[in-house]
Amino acid sequence: MLKAHSRFLEQLMLVGDLLLVAGAWLLAYGLRFYVIVPPITGGAVPPLEPYLLMLLSILVVWGVSFHAFDLYRPRRIGSHLSEAADIAKASTMGALVLVAVMAFFFKGYDYSRVVIVYFWLLSIGLVWFFRAAFREVLRFARRQGYNLRSAVIVGDGDLATAVIDRIQSRTDVGIQVLGVVGDDKDGNGRARWLGGYSDLRSVLDRHEVDHVILALAHEEYSRLPGLLDAIGDEPITIHAVPDLFRFTSLRGGVEDFEGIPFIHLRDSPLQGWNQVAKRTFDLAFTLALLALLSPVILAVALAVKLTSPGPVLYRQERMGLDGQRFLMLKFRTMRVNAEAGTGPIWASASDPRRTPIGSFLRRFSLDELPQFANVVRGEMSVVGPRPERPVFVERFRQTVPGYMLRHKVKSGITGWAQVHGLRGNTSLEGRIQYDLEYIERWSFWLDLKIILLTVVRVLFDRNAY
């Protein structure tokens, strides 16, 4: 998108957002005092004028906050969910600043806290809804052939092919691939060949091009200065796709740091707001479940104590987030010092070391219930890769590629591999594959799905012993 057109759209969206924010403030006032009418201190509806005066501060604060969270960057490629999250963060920051402004500069007037809460929620909902509707209209228009931009892909090989496939699969972003510039005339069947690398200047002269996407293989990076010289000072948007993403894992990406692009080859999805949300859910879910299952937990503890000598709980060292070690808790299902003669080994289907009720507890995962204490302490999560013993970790990391990447998130009581039947003495490679897939795909909804599937697995799984 050309910069002048982009700036115009940015200013237009800013004006629209601020109008919606102003409407949300007035709507919050109306809802509080004329629609949803709880008792009012003093018995009279406060005048509108002080709220109109506050509107000036609100527009400044929300305008700055929306820019601070980069809500006006081009989003031809992007999801409604990510935009909703950014709007929520910006509006939450604005609401916190608004409360501070009221406390320090408007001490003489008591603004309704209910109005502020209504306004905070409405500012998120209204701005997101109208932005989503606007973007859907744009995407529909692009699918019909309007608001299109043309692009030339420069490069040979798999990277250029991948770029073309991604662009052509998203007709809603409105980018048409005119063709490919590269020396391999027959190597790409996804788009029309326009010429070799040396022909780039003439290709740009013959066609109206908005974007040049440089998708060079790593061994061809020496061509980059010559290609940039060929483009010259043409008012064309230039994109470079680094040939590094074949080495990325765990949601690699690009971050701007003081004007310098940092390419993350390996990163965890559970940072910032995601980390806070997952930890909040872990605590809420765990405390609710412990309250609900407290009779079951007490009954299992008594059964373990009465059926075999030794402690009720079994503490075993495991390795969790970032390779940190912790003591994982379980109800004891094997006799005391069970590994004295065998050393560290996995349990088997007919393990003679089990207590009288050990098989039953392991079959229905009742022995795992004490691990919710590990969740409360922050050592584990409800959902994540299952933690392994350090002695096995040291063995597996030597033989299984990518094994240690599963330690980029907290270990879980249940996980993506477990709900696919990979529990107990099953394929290690399969479990690692599912663990890494979980980290790549992580979302709050995936966690909920795994929890629901876990209930089914507890009832029907045959790999637990």
Detailed description of the structure:
The chain has 465 residues and is an alpha/beta fold. Helix content is 48%, strand content 12%. It has helices at residues 3-35, 49-68, 80-105, 113-143, 158-169, 200-206, 224-231, 273-307, 358-363, 371-376, 390-399, 428-441, 444-460, and strands at 149-154, 175-181, 193-195, 211-214, 237-240, 253-257, 260-264, 313-319, 325-331, 381-383, 412-414. The strands form four sheets. The chain has a five-stranded parallel sheet with strand order 3-2-1-4-5, with helices on one face. A two-stranded antiparallel sheet has the order 6-7. The chain has a two-stranded antiparallel ribbon with strand order 8-9. Strand 10, helix 11 and strand 11 form a beta-alpha-beta unit. Helix 1 (3-35) runs antiparallel to helix 2 (49-68). The protein is flat, with a radius of gyration of 29 Å. The termini are far apart. Mean pLDDT is 82; it is low at 1-5.
Keywords:
465 residues; alpha/beta; five-stranded parallel β-sheet; disordered N terminus
